[in-house]
Specification:
Helix content of chain B: under 10%
Radius of gyration of chain A: 17 Å
Structural class of chain B: little secondary structure
Oligomer: heterodimer
Keywords (chain A): Endoplasmic reticulum, ER-Golgi transport, Membrane, Protein transport, Receptor, Signal, Transmembrane, Transmembrane helix, Transport
InterPro entries (chain A): ER_ret_rcpt (IPR000133)
Main location (chain A): endoplasmic reticulum
GO molecular function (chain A): ER retention sequence binding
Shape of chain B: rod-shaped
Distance between the termini of chain B: 26 Å
Helix content of chain A: over 70%
Largest interface: A-B, 17 and 6 residues
Number of domains of chain A: 1
Protein name (chain A): ER lumen protein-retaining receptor
Number of helices of chain A: 10
Number of strands of chain B: 0
Structural class of chain A: mainly alpha
Largest sheet of chain B: none
Shape of chain A: globular
Number of strands of chain A: 0
Strand content of chain B: under 5%
Strand content of chain A: under 5%
Chain lengths: ~220, ~10
């Protein structure tokens, strides 16, 4: 475990905490894409099927449980909690996310490290995570105005991806035979999706103004 | 020696 990986995991955790805080404090999920949250829940459930078969460390096991539980809790809030549910605007959240699920699974059937149940679901989760932010980015772009906590949520998620790339560069330089094409290529694609958002995030930060995305 | 690949990242 290097400092970039740890910082990446922590910003990932922070992004989820920011989202939970926003939903809890405002009893509202306005500006939050339920579809992106459901995709993340699927991502974690599919990737951590190895929770009971491969033990890496107490840290890994603990974080896996936290990610699964928090992603399910967020989906539960948006779908079931009476007050939060009312604030969900399904007319803004129209991305056809099932296409992402189908395409990711199809890709995983062809591109995987080994043709086993766990490995195919692992590859599927990597591909799906790479594109899971799309419904959220489209929703933000359609609504134009982004409230502070939602903006910070997406910012921390993007930071997590950027730090994972630094982690891979570090591991590539320090570990013999560090090659993970599936994770690294998908990770770079995923990070690139945030480029546009980051551009406007930094402009609003520099000008000390509210984050606005162009239509 | 073929090493079993373990996904050690989250």
């Amino acid at each position: 475990m290097n400092i970039f990986r740890l910082a990446g995991d922590m910003t990932h955790l922070l992004s989820i905490l920011v989202l939970l805080l926003k939903i809890y404090a405002t009893k509202s999920c306005s500006g939050v894409s339920r579809k992106t949250q459901e995709l993340y829940a699927i991502v974690f459930l599919a990737r951590y099927l190895d929770l009971f078969t491969d033990f890496i460390s107490v840290y890994n096991t603990f974080m896996k449980i936290v990610f699964i539980a928090s992603s399910l809790a967020i989906v539960w809030c948006i779908r079931v909690h009476p007050m939060v549910k009312r604030s969900y605007d399904k007319d803004l959240d129209t991305f056809r996310h099932y296409l992402l699920v189908a395409a990711s699974f199809l890709l995983a059937l062809f591109l995987h490290e080994k043709f086993t149940f766990l490995e195919i679901f692992w590859a599927f989760s990597i591909y799906l995570e790479a594109v899971a932010i799309l419904p959220q980015l489209v929703l933000l772009q359609r609504s134009g105005n982004v409230d502070n906590l939602t903006g910070q949520y997406v910012f921390f998620l993007g930071a997590y991806r950027g730090l994972y790339i630094l982690n891979w560069i570090y591991r590539y330089l320090t570990e013999p035979r560090f090659t993970r094409w599936i994770a690294c290529v998908s990770g770079v694609v995923q990070t690139a999706l945030y480029a546009d958002f980051f551009y406007y995030y930094f402009i609003s930060w520099k000008n000390n103004s509210k984050l606005k995305l162009p239509a | 020696v073929v090493e079993r690949k373990i996904h050690d990242e989250l």
